[in-house]
Amino acid sequence: MNVNVRTDTSAAPRSGTRRKKITLAALGALVVAGAAVALFLPDQKPALSLPDRVCAEAVPSTHVKALLPEKGEPFEEERAVNFTPDASRGLGMCDLSGGGRIFEIRYSRLQDPEYNREWVRRDASKPGNIPLSLGPAGGYVESHSRVELFVDCPYAKGRTDLLEVSVGIGGVPETVDTTRQAALAGLAADVARVIARQVEHCEGAADLPDGAPTIG
């Protein structure tokens, strides 16, 4: 009986090819396993931690927390100027950041007679602005990321000034968000109460209510 022995080895798998297939299969398994693990791992961003008060410990942080994500870049108070009691320099600023968002808080005493209640009402009625009030104080929500609040602050020599409080936030979507507007207005009210009562000692500051401003 004749036995034909095949000597053609072209169809036989080569050891190098076999190793490549094994390596590729192992890599594919690792990619799939890694993707599966990523689905179940918690978000690796650190949780944001804020102090109870910001701006040289003068302003409650409640509304700042409401405007920040739960996780992200650490919170930082970059600077706070003239927020301490009796600082009274006619202007001040406070810059905060965290979670990819930036806060710009400013106040100033407007001493030009042109800046009065009628001027505030005109600005509040401009297209895109929404009027707001806090007891005797008034102002408006401007666009999607800023609130302006004005408090009567009579000058000792009989001149009636306005205390302007401006609160803005960056790093947020450029869309109207009523929740964000309410939190910004609440932060502006917190700042206005502190500055009017403790820093500038505005007459009638005690008339500012402790609640949130009314929007609209």
Explain the overall architecture.
The chain has 216 residues and is α+β, with helices and mostly antiparallel strands. The chain has helices at residues 15-40, 62-66, 117-124, 178-199, and strands at residues 53-54, 59-60, 76-81, 91-98, 101-110, 129-134, 137-142, 146-154, 160-170, 214-215. The strands form two sheets. It has an eight-stranded antiparallel beta sheet with strand order 3-4-5-9-8-7-6-10, sandwiched between helices. A two-stranded antiparallel sheet has the order 1-2. The longest helix has 26 residues, at 15-40. It starts with 14 loop residues before the first helix and ends with a strand.
Give the overall shape, derived from the CA principal axes: globular
Overall pLDDT, averaged?
84
- Provide the structure class: alpha+beta
State the share of residues found in helices, binned by percent: 25-40%
Counted by DSSP, the helix tally is 4
Number of extended strands:
10
Using the CA coordinates, give the radius of gyration.
31 Å
Order of helices and strands: HEEHEEEHEEEEHE
* End-to-end separation: 105 Å
Q: In terms of per-residue confidence, which ranges show pLDDT below 50 for 5 or more consecutive residues?
A: 1-13, 19-27, 30-41
Q: Tell me the fraction of residues in β-strands, as a range.
A: 25-35%
Largest beta sheet: strand ordering: 3-4-5-9-8-7-6-10
Largest sheet descriptor = 8 strands, antiparallel
